[in-house]
Input
Amino acid sequence: MIVGIGLDIIETARVQRALVKPGFLNRVYTPPEQEYLIRRKMNAQSAAGLFAAKEAVSKALGTGIRNFSWQDIEILQDDNGKPYALLKGNALERFKSIGGTNIHISITHIKDLAAAQAVIEG
Output
């Protein structure tokens, strides 16, 4: 059964501008996410995709990011490059409270936009 759906779209240029602001990288992206972005040469499309995925997961949880730290939702990739979410703190508590058992994530981007969708099963 689906217990939550979230969708987010963001302009790549917005994230590109934010990446150079002091503190943005450490506030929004976890150390493993930052390592991924470094491997991707700080590609704005990749950064925007992760950002959109975090937002999509927060929306699927039914609250949006306001109730979580950006660090509570970590977007990683399996050996095949498929994205998945690792939840911590308040995000994990919310996931459990809505009966979540699995999160499916899809990320896409074109030159100017990145989008992500998250579906939570319960």
